[in-house]
């Protein structure tokens, strides 16, 4: 079968699409209101609907409901990813460093035991 030369099958470059959702990390979005609230001090220059924010102090998650800059974007609380504190564990046994293990260790800090 003979080869057929197709020429350039690559078309022209298309327009740039809309960026996807972003995650932001800011302690300046706070509270648990599920209604969109603006946080002018959020530090987020440009938010789009669907962007997410995590407050690293409270571990609360927020979603952008209204796009805009820090003064106009509105964020709503979704959930807190911090679980409840667990029960206190049992006290552990005291640990001693075995001299033979210490001498054979490749860890120079451990070798000083």
> Over the alpha carbons, how many angstroms does the gyration radius reach?
28 Å
Number of strands: 5
- Could you list the spans in which at least 5 consecutive residues all have pLDDT below 50? none
- Content-based structural category: mainly beta
Give the % helix.
under 10%
Cα shape:
flat
Could you describe the 3D structure shown?
The protein is mainly beta. The protein has a domain at about 25-80. It is about 5% helix and about 20% strand. It is built from one helix and five strands. It has one helix at about 100-105, and strands at about 25, 35-40, 50-55, 60-65, 75-80. It has a five-stranded mixed β-sheet with strand order 1-3-4-5-2, with no helix packed on it. The longest helix is centred in the last third of the chain and has 6 residues, at about 100-105. The chain is flat, with a radius of gyration of 28 Å. The model has no long low-confidence stretch (mean pLDDT about 90).
Per-chain topology:
Elements: E1 23-25, E2 37-38, E3 52-54, E4 60-66, E5 74-80, H1 99-104
Parallel strand pairs: 1-3
Antiparallel strand pairs: 2-5, 3-4, 4-5
How would you describe this structure in keywords?
about 110 residues, mainly beta, five-stranded mixed beta sheet, 1 helix, 5 strands
Short description:
The protein has one helix and five strands, in the order βββββα.
């Amino acid at each position: 079968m003979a080869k057929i030369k197709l020429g350039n099958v690559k078309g022209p470059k298309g327009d740039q699409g809309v960026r996807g959702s972003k995650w932001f990390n800011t302690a300046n979005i706070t509270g648990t209101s599920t209604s969109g609230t603006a946080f002018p001090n959020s530090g987020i220059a440009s938010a789009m609907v669907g962007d997410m924010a995590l407050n690293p102090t409270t571990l609360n998650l927020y979603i952008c409901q209204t796009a805009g800059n820090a003064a106009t974007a509105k964020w709503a609380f979704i959930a807190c990813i911090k679980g409840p504190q667990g029960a206190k564990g049992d006290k552990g046994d005291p640990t001693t460093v075995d001299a033979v293990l210490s001498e054979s260790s490749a860890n120079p800090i451990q070798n000083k035991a």
